[in-house]
Amino acid sequence: MLTMLMSTSIMTASMLMFMSHPMSLGLILLIQSLIVALITGFMFSTFWFSYIMFIIMVGGILVLFIYMVSIASNELFKFSNLLFMSMMMFFMSMMMLFILNDKFNLNMYNSTQDINYIYKSLTPMINFTKYLNYPSSTILFFMIIYMFITLVAVVKITDIKQGPLRQN
């Protein structure tokens, strides 16, 4: 499952180079943040940290969307059929590769047993302290710094004394 999410992340990152419209860039950023939230959710035993991270990223994307709508002109959204077909073929071939691979186990019984074992063996306090230890603490601190910089940027952009964002 993680390899499929990683390959999807690489595919969306490669699609980012071919996009030029702000709406398509925002959509790719939203998909990428969802994939990163899923990957971090599967790496840890609970999904609450990845859910909070996804909500924060969606809030930042909404701020960027409002800013781009108020500043950018009304451009037509041009969608390349060749790019779409090539990415769909790549995605379908990757899915077939994962399904046909012997290591890719579709048995839900084993995964349910693993999840029950994880939840029974770990206490909630250990799950919470895991986010404050070394590997996860850097993500937490970068998220705090990112939120602070975003807050300062939004306050500077939407200064009431300067008037509206777009002059008519």
TrEMBL record:
Annotated GO MF terms: NADH dehydrogenase (ubiquinone) activity
The signal peptide here is none
Keyword terms of this UniProt record: Electron transport, Membrane, Mitochondrion, NAD, Respiratory chain, Translocase, Transmembrane, Transmembrane helix, Transport
Give me the segments passing through the membrane: 47-69, 81-100, 139-158
Q: How does it sit in the membrane?
A: Multi-pass membrane protein
Keyword RNA-binding annotated:
no
InterPro entries linked: ComplexI_Subunit6
EC numbers listed for it are 7.1.1.2
Q: Which reaction does it catalyse?
A: a ubiquinone + NADH + 5 H(+)(in) = a ubiquinol + NAD(+) + 4 H(+)(out)
Per its UniProt entry, which superkingdom is the organism in? Eukaryota
Please state where this protein is localized: Mitochondrion membrane
Statement: the UniProt record of this protein carries the keyword Cell inner membrane:
no
Q: Name one GO cellular component term.
A: mitochondrial membrane
Protein family: Belongs to the complex I subunit 6 family.
Protein name as catalogued: NADH-ubiquinone oxidoreductase chain 6
From which lineage does this chain's organism come?
Eukaryota, Metazoa, Ecdysozoa, Arthropoda, Hexapoda
